Amino acid sequence: MATAEQASWALEPAGDHAMMVRRHGSGPDIVWIHGLGEWSAGFDPVAVHPAFAGFSHVMVDLPGYGRSPWPVQPDGLEALADRLAAWLGDRRPALIGHSMGGVLAQLIAERIAVRAVVDVDGNLSRGDCTSSALAAAYSVDDFIAHGFAAMRADVYERGLRELPLRDYHGAMCLASPRVFHHHALELVRISEPETLPTRLAALRVPALFVAGVPDGVCPRSRDLLDRHGARWIGLEPAGHWVHIDQLDAFASAVASFVREVSIDP
Question: CA 163 to CA 198: how far, in whole Å?
């Protein structure tokens, strides 16, 4: 299996935007979709885990994040899901999305046929809006002028004690503040009605939610998953970056799920 360092890079068109895409491995496709302010490199430790051998890994830097160009006008989440669905076409991969990426994976699966959805600690209710709520409290001009710098400084300081935040800080340094702010507003907007757990449970493809316990999605969100009959597992002790906090357990559980649904009848 090719490593993340041996991956092929390409700048691929996604409508009138473009995004950097890396590919490595061989077998059924897994598309990894990162969260707010993040980049595909945050998935590197888990995507090269031995449990995921035998898959092709497609790692995207969404427009405005990581190594991708910054769009002049950011998409809303629904429009971004339309863009990603058109980019995927009829490839029918499994989608693994973290945080905002989990929301996007769900929205994409409502639009086109995919093999499976794994939502990793994605937003489900207002209580899950942490970084997004902080950013949304600023006007866009104030966020660009000083708010984003303040958030990055706070993440850097906390990253001295919390390993996942070290990569997050690096990713934030590459992210467009305008795109970050716009998506933060969108995450708050889509989380507040608490309809995402219902929509996740209603998907017509196998779907699994992976929660970090006790410090990932809030207790209210876990209750909503149960109430609406969504399939989910909690890995503990873990926070929002459950795939980093519980690397081996996450890789084992998620790779088994994806492998099961990747076997054609």
Answer: 33
